[in-house]
Amino acid sequence: MLKQSLSRIELTIGIILLLCLCVSVPVRSGDRRVEEDKLKAFQATEITADPSKGKIPFSKPPPMDPLDRMYFVEIMMKKITYLYDLSKIISLLLEKENKYITLDAQIMLLRENHLLPRHLKKDFNPQAPLRKGVAAYVFCKALEINGGLGIRMFGLTEHSAINELVYEGILPAGNAKEILTGEELISIFTQAANHRKSHAK
User: Which terminus of the chain is more solvent-facing, meaning fewer CB atoms within 10 Å of its CB: N or C?
Assistant: First the structure.
């Protein structure tokens, strides 16, 4: 039985070697058809292997890395980030980027999960600059950080969200109106992802 760690490349090499071995072995002309039928049966069995028996369906391509390095490089180089950047980042943080692919879908994700502050629930402009207070609010909601008694009594605000994320070591202190750079947004995302992983239920 093949191990799950076996790569497609190793499998291809294995099949090629097997074919070469079969070709190099001399067979009588009367037995050639039997040998070829056996080889076809072997290949068909391996390619359509039952995943429930621990074998990998080789026709399935390996999953792509959702954390595309080039995407993060582009974000890092930005002097100003926008709400559409936040939408994409949150879909990655929640590991739902494969379901919410388009910008409209990513905005829907924010709304469906009640991650937006009140003033953005209806008036969400993806082209608007991303401010620290908004980012803090959305990340705080996405991470399900409930905060102290004040937040539980009066609700989360952009200012209280900043305080909570500063306390958790996710966000540096600052003004809620500050516009985030790409480097700052990636830094927040990285810390938030670590926080989410360490607090996974």
Answer: C
